[in-house]
Write a structure and sequence with these properties.
Layout (H helix, E strand, L loop, with lengths): L21 H62 L2 H10 L20
Length: 115
């Protein structure tokens, strides 16, 4: 059996220059001019859609924060009402030895307007 060998010689053509095809450049420019507005429109739509979704999330987050703050406000008002109730005040007063005022110990003064 014999094996055949082939040797390839690399062709060096450094002095050969390719001519530009003017028609191909015009076709490429027309394609870019046709596709570019569509691409910009899609990018703008995507940007506005993302902003809309982010705004929706921000509104929802703010609504939840308002609901939480209103709930905290109600809890604080309930604590204030219980802390300032007359029964609680009387309990603390009796603990320190205070007694309710007797008749004749309370005087009412009216403020007269100053000239």
């Amino acid at each position: 059996m014999s094996a055949g060998y082939a040797q390839f010689k690399r062709v060096e053509n450094t002095r050969v220059a390719r001519e530009r095809d003017g028609r191909r450049g015009k076709e490429l420019a027309a394609l870019v001019a046709a596709v570019l507005p569509i691409a910009f429109a899609l990018l703008a739509y995507t940007r506005f859609h993302i902003q809309t979704v982010q705004t929706g999330y921000a509104i929802d987050r703010d609504r939840r924060a308002v609901a939480r703050l209103l709930e905290d406000r109600q809890k604080l008002l309930a604590r204030l009402a219980s802390a300032t109730s007359p029964a609680r005040t009387a309990r603390y007063a009796s603990r320190f030895g205070f007694v309710p005022p007797r008749t004749g110990q309370i005087y009412a003064f009216t403020a007269e307007p100053r000239p």
